[in-house]
Design goal:
heterodimer; A: mainly beta; 4-stranded antiparallel β-sheet; 0% helix; B: 114 residues; mainly beta; 6-stranded mixed β-sheet
Chain lengths: 114, 114
C-alpha cells in the first residue's frame, strides 16, 4: 500500500474486554513501532520490531499489553482486560531500515474504553 | 519524566507572520531531532529534521535552529499560512546507536488567522 494502514480506525470496548489492533506497515519496511497518544499529548513509545524480532518493549505500560509481528510484516497490538486509562489513540509507524529514523505513521486507532 | 519539553502549548499567528516553537532536552545522547506535523484525525508526518553537527537547517518556509550547548532547538515557520494550522511536535532520538524510540514533546497547537 501507499502508506501505513491501521484498523480499526475506532474501537469502543467495555472495561475488561480484550482488543486487538492491526497495523499494515509500508511494504518492505524493516522497522515497526507502536506508540500511544493520549488526548492532547505527544505520542509515547510502546514497542519496536525489527522484522519479526521485538527488540524493545520497554514502553508497554503493563503485562496486559502484548504485541507481535510473526512474519515480519503485519503487526498486532493486543490489550487484555482493558481499563479506562487505556483510552487513547494507538499509532503504528514503520521505517525502511534499522538506521533510518524517518518513521512513517498511520492514522491511528482511537480506543475508547467505557 | 518528560524527556523533551516543548513550548508554547498553543500559538496564534496572523497570516504572513513567523511562527516559533521551542524545545529543550536533557539527554546528551540524543543525536536526531525531527519535527512532526499532525492534522486532526491523522498520524504525525515528518516535517523536517536536524542532526547536532549543524546549527541550522532550512527547507522552504521551515527552519530548524539548533543550539547544542544549550540543548535547545526550535522550529521557525516563515510566511505562515492558514494551511499550516496543525499541531506540531518536536522529538528526539538516539539514531546512531540504532535505537528507534522517538521521545516526543507535548505538542503546540498552531492557528494561523487569515
Amino acid at each position: 500500500g501507499a502508506g501505513v494502514s491501521q484498523s480499526p480506525r475506532y474501537k469502543v470496548a467495555k472495561r475488561g474486554q480484550d482488543v486487538a489492533l492491526r497495523c499494515d506497515p509500508i511494504s518492505g519496511h524493516v522497522s515497526l513501532f507502536w506508540y500511544q497518544q493520549a488526548l492532547g499529548q505527544g505520542p509515547e513509545f510502546l514497542t519496536y520490531f525489527q522484522n519479526e524480532a521485538q527488540l524493545d518493549k520497554s514502553g508497554l505500560p503493563s503485562d496486559r499489553f502484548f504485541a507481535e509481528r510473526p512474519e515480519g510484516s503485519v503487526s498486532t497490538l493486543k490489550i487484555q482486560r482493558t481499563q479506562q486509562e487505556d483510552s487513547a489513540v494507538y499509532l503504528c509507524a514503520s521505517s525502511p531500515d534499522r538506521g533510518n529514523t524517518e518513521a512513517f505513521f498511520g492514522q491511528g486507532t482511537r480506543l475508547t474504553v467505557v | 519524566q518528560q524527556q523533551v519539553k516543548q513550548s508554547p502549548q498553543s500559538l496564534i499567528v496572523q497570516k504572513g507572520g513567523i511562527s516559533i516553537i521551542n524545545c529543550a532536552y536533557e539527554n546528551t545522547a540524543f543525536d536526531y531531532f525531527p519535527w512532526y506535523q499532525q492534522f486532526p484525525g491523522k498520524g504525525p508526518a515528518l516535517l523536517i529534521a536536524i542532526r547536532p553537527d549543524v546549527s541550522e537547517k532550512k527547507e522552504g518556509r521551515f527552519t530548524i535552529s539548533f543550539n547544542k550547548s544549550a540543548k535547545q532547538f526550535s522550529l521557525h515557520i516563515m510566511d505562515s499560512q492558514p494551511g499550516d494550522s496543525a499541531t506540531y511536535f518536536c522529538a528526539a532520538d538516539r539514531a546512531q546507536t540504532g535505537a528507534n524510540n522517538l521521545f516526543f514533546g507535548t505538542g503546540t497547537r498552531l492557528t494561523v488567522i487569515p
